[in-house]
Amino acid sequence: MSDYISIYQSIQNECKTMAKGTPPVIIAVSKTKPYEVIREAYLQGIREFGENYIPEAIEKFTKLREEFPESIESVHVHHIGPVQSGTLRKLFGIFSYTHGVGSFSSLTELLKRAEKEKKTIRYFLQTNLTSENTKHGFPLETLLLKGDDLLTFQNEYCIWEGFMGMGPSSGDLAQTRDVFTKLASFRNTYFPHKQLSMGMSGDYEMAVELGSNFVRIGSKIFGERDYGTHTV
């Protein structure tokens, strides 16, 4: 039996030391991991999980709720992949947060769907500060042009939590620090009451130092990904 909670708590304690304010929420990224891993992590006390693949998450966390009905109230499942208009309707009911809203068309559809489903979801606007064509998300200039209008993109069930950012695909830590610094400065200057979702297993320390409120930790807790097990 793997001791997931000790690793999780060690990361929590590290982040408490580094954080300048309230320590961040540690999301245990369980994507591609089988249900048995989710079950064991839950039994050990982990309550924040991250998943990319919607059908896979629905299968695993529906099973968790059936076996442990109390998990409906205590577990938060974070969708950490890009939000796509064609599949976002499936987010409601399992996911508490979605971190990858990267277009206004997806955001508009998410708002409509939330009203229809009458189920609460919190979302982050995904930013793209590396100008990579392979990356999803808004340039900061686009968000700045919207200004206070961004505050209107929410309703009773769909709540704007803040901004999500990632470093370059190369993993270059100097460029990653630049991305995190720019996004933190943007948040602090224009939307100081909003949250930041930045940092993964390889760069969460600098993200926390720069004020991230949510960090996404997968391999450091669960080991390397299990490829080939998910359904897109």
In short:
This protein has helices at 4-18, 35-44, 54-67, 71-74, 104-117, 140-146, 173-190, 204-209, 219-222, and strands spanning 25-29, 48-51, 76-79, 97-101, 121-126, 158-165, 195-198, 214-217. It has 232 residues and is α/β, with parallel strands linked by helices. The model is unreliable at 227-232 (pLDDT under 50).
What labels would you give this structure?
alpha/beta; TIM Barrel; 8-stranded parallel sheet; 40% helix; globular; disordered C terminus
Count the E strands.
8
Tell me the distance between the termini: 29 Å
Strand content: 15-25%
Just name the CATH architecture: Alpha-Beta Barrel
Mean pLDDT: 93
What's the tally of helices?
9
Given helix and strand content, the structural type is: alpha/beta
Q: Helix and strand string, N-terminal first?
A: HEHEHHEEHEHEHEHEH
Can you summarize the main beta sheet?
8 strands, parallel
Could you name the ranges where pLDDT drops below 50 across 5 or more consecutive residues? Answer: 227-232
Give me the side-by-side strand order of the main sheet: 7-6-5-4-3-2-1-8
Residue share in helices? Answer: 25-40%
- Oligomeric form: single chain
CATH class placement: Alpha Beta
Count of domain modules = 1
* Shape label: globular
Radius of gyration, taken over Cα atoms and rounded to an integer in Å: 17 Å
